[in-house]
Design goal:
This protein is an alpha+beta fold and 168 residues long. It is built from 4 helices and 9 strands; from the N terminus they run αβααββββββββα.
Length: 168
């Protein structure tokens, strides 16, 4: 029996690294507000300070809409990465070795959208919808990762956790 051939077929069966990008919707009302703010500066008799404030505010809103338009969750081998938008400004890297369990869940109204920490609930990273994967960490804390691919994300996390669960 040829060991080289069996190693090649085992390598062919390895799944591709997981990466899933979810589109959000919160950017739409934020963009509408930014447009309305810019329209106000064209009204007659608007003081310069108001025009400046509205322009800066609209610019900040547009920048936020770019940064929170998508949420990408990616398997990096030893870590799970959750990153908002195209730039790595708002992201969380979660080592698999620190995850105790993963289960499908729903975010509540208090969890909301975005990237934030809530006392006694833990971290939430969510861009749209209520479906999430709830990660229980070794430290006792929780992380809720919003996703529209709950089953796919659960499969990846549980596959990565199996060796670590034996050590816990």
């Amino acid at each position: 029996m040829n060991d080289d051939h069996s190693n090649e077929s085992a390598a062919d069966e390895l799944p591709a690294p997981y990466e899933h990008k979810q589109q959000g919707w919160i950017h739409i009302p934020m963009e509408v507000i930014a447009i309305l703010m810019l329209l106000v500066i064209w009204l007659p008799d608007v003081p310069f300070q108001v025009m400046l404030g509205l322009t800066i505010g609209a610019g900040i809103l547009v920048l936020l809409t770019l940064m929170f338009r998508t949420l990408t969750i990616k398997d990096e081998g030893e870590n799970l990465l959750a990153q908002f938008g195209p730039w790595p400004v708002f992201r969380k890297r979660i080592p698999y070795e620190r995850i105790v369990s993963a289960e499908a869940g729903k975010t509540s109204l208090i969890d909301g959208l975005g990237y934030h920490w809530i006392p006694m609930r833990g971290w939430t990273l969510n861009i749209a919808g209520r479906d999430c994967v709830h990660l229980q960490m070794l430290s006792g804390s929780s992380i809720r990762l919003g996703t529209d691919d709950v089953q796919g994300l659960l499969e990846v996390v549980n596959r990565k956790l199996s060796p670590h669960r034996r050590d816990v």
